[in-house]
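Subject: complex prediction, re-run

Hi both,

The earlier run crashed halfway through, so I resubmitted it with identical inputs.
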Amino acid sequence: MHEHDHLEAAALEPAAAQGGGFSRREFLRGSGAAAAATALATGQGLAEAQQATKPKVASGKAPTTIQLTVNGKNHSVKVETTSTLIDVLRYQLKLTGCKPVSNDGVSGASSVLIDGKLANASTMLAMACVKKKIQTVESLGGTKPDAVVRAFVHQDAMQCGFCTPGFVVAVRSFLDKNPKATEEQVRAGLNGNICRCGTYANVIQAALEVVKGGK
Amino acid sequence: MAEYSWPAQGSTALVGKEQDRTDGIEKATGTAKYAYDQVFDKMLFAKLLGCPHAHCRVKSIDVKAAEKVPGVVHVAVMKKWDDGKGKEIVPEVRWQGDHLACVAAESEAAAALGVAAIKVEYEELDVFVKEEDLEAAKEAGRTNEGRPDVQMEAEPDENVDESEFADQEFDRLFKEAAVVVEGDYGIHSITHMCLEPHGSTLYWDDDKLIVWHSTQMVSGVGGNFAEILGITAGDVEIHCDYVGGGFGSKFQANAWGGVAAEISKATGRPVKMMLDRDLELKIAGSRPSGFIKVKVGADSEGVVTVWDSVHWGTAGANGGGVDKGNIPYVFNPPNRRRKQIGIVTNTGPEQAWRAPHHPQACAITQTAYDDIAAKLGISSYDVFLRNLASVAPKKQGVSMAETYREQMEIAARLIDWKAKWHPHGKGDADGSIVTGLGMALHTWGGGGHNSKCLLKVHPDGGVETFLGSQDIGTGTRTAIGMVVAETFGLPLSAVKVNIGSSTYPVSGPSGGSTTIGGVSESNRRAAQDALEKLAGLVADKLKVDAANLVAKDGRIQEKDNADNGMSWKDACRLLGMETLEVTGEFKRGPKESPLSSIQVGGVQMAEVAVDRETGVVRMEKFVAVQDMGLVINPKTAKSQMYGAVIMGIAYALFEERIMDAKTGAFLNCELTDYRLPRLGDIGEIVVHLHEPESEYNRGVVGLGEPPVISPGAAISNAVANALGVRVPVLPLTPKRVLEALEKGGNA
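This time it finished cleanly. Structure:
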């Protein structure tokens, strides 16, 4: 059995594979149940997991230590098969810019960049992120905040602020791909994030400010 | 004590000028820490078991298996089988999701498995959730009928039966009316959908409970925790630097906050208890629905002479609904009969939702006013204008009718009403697409809440203010800094604003658009008093009259001779070794204050495009004009206006709570299914802060609620104008639009 297959089997049927009294149904009921379900249903999480190198234990019970590269630094974190990336970022690395709004990813509040591509940390299994470059919203801050951050502040593209970090990451990702986006393209291309306070009008202006060279 | 006042309009350095919010970088880069974001060593994760049934008796709860789930540390049953006085009872659950038990575990996953392992015996009872169906509610015995509230120009003779007289009088008035509209209108229940769900992260420090709580009431909610726990409020410390949305629903500790504190006490460990999304929607707050049957008569000019309505709706298990005092909304026709019926449903309890009752009242009554315009074939603008004579007369010296008239002119100009308007249903079609214009108007009280602050001026020139207020996203932190900095002639960055802790002086809850008024009052007062003291020291030193000194450009100097003065720092050095501490206090009362005021008006206009084939309504343009007295920070004020309009678009076109009629299950309680607008759905939004000198001179009023009121009616009226048919019930989903087109209707 290849190690990849081992991981797949463990992720799908931990109980059967390990004899650990842990059924697949229970696994799906756990943290990020919908996340895991989505990942399994779409195969996304598994495909990612298959490319990862061999965590030694994947039983769903005993935690295992893996290395994650977050914002350019390597971190040893303890995970179970069910651990989602968002939980590891928030509760082990205390990077709480990644927000738990819905565990199915429809809100975009847990947006991160993985190898430069936009992803929802709430629908990623932590194990699937080994050997990948994870970038959180915190990496856009620091002493010289990113142009998107500055534009969000200048255009006041935030109210309660809970969706804002996810939006900032989404706008950064969108503008990386569309640095000369028009207003029409901005309105069409940034529909993966939900804001309840109603900051969309300001977000549009923030994105356009970055396109124009910012302030 | 200083004579409190604002600088004359146009003479300010900061107030009224757009400032970036001071915590913007923290929010945008994820370093702002919410209650959900607090992480403590050995912290437990707690999850609730919500009742799966909408109406039942809970016969037993068995948590043995849950306690054995690996990682589960503590399980608490939250229902009691006695009434607290020794009498045995079987607890009744009246809405789906009601809290039954709480599991605390080493991880969220383990807590969820623990919850799933709890075994409950239920006895299911009858369920009723059809809030829109008055006849079904009557049949099910689920109505609370109120007495009709009648206002008539004619008075009955002494010996005449009043209700018979009213019947005859209303018949007569309807016969004499040039036009009569009879219609049904409605708006469904929605939820608050705070993106940061309700909850807290808490721990005990000896006998003191420390709570990081997601709340709109930093200064008061500790008392609520204390009440639940049977301790004194002095032993509860509330912290809340940021709140991830509240909208009126976050004033309490809630049962789940209480149980989290109990579990923390029992285990000696910090506990994080934040609601899962489905429970957030089911139990943490909803806005009552409103449905109405209206008969309204008007003269040939569209001026309403008689209004007769019965309306119903639900606020949950206690009935309730939209208060009849707002029917019809803003307008007060001379002859008016209104009856309210509350419907008792097995749905989650209401919480105040941004401008309680107003958006629904506006949506179900100003639509009827618009249908008068449709029936007469005249412009809605003219009908609204001609009915202004019936609105409440004054707001502190300013005529409301006059305010609305001015605002209507501004809004009409901004949306180009005259050029774009066409009679209802008579516009040019572009294929299957028709466009339309609609308007609505609203009012709100606002004004300042009670607020106390402690202002410190240090001998080194440092300035800080402390108050137990909160910034729920409106920019309160920034506005406080602006008020103090303006008073001292300092840059905004020179003032440190400390809010979000119950250890600071008591400041009011953020509800009813009262925060900006309250915190501006306390801080302006404290700063003016502090400046008076400092100016006294400077005057002594420079041998000038203190009354001639002003704080400007980082100096305290003579009004007419800027050279005679000293820097802020030098002035503060005159304090010697002692920090100057000043308390600023405002108590809301009947007496008028020079710094704040109450009562605002707003006018909104919508332009929509409707596809008659698909039923999809697309926002083209939306204009919102609003007065709010003196505007502290126009940048954040405009953001609130944009936000309110977008929240309005949400309930006008997208969101509603959908209940299963048979089981009472909340069907769309996940974000995937609970529809909200996205960035591409909002069209062009234009906001206008209406601040003539007469408004500025009234002082600060508040803005949170008013602009969220009119969008429902304005958008519904625009759709009716486009189609020539009224889509009676909000949200105006494609299905409802197509059904209305098929049926014809009353526009």
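The longest strand of chain B covers residues 433-444.

- K.
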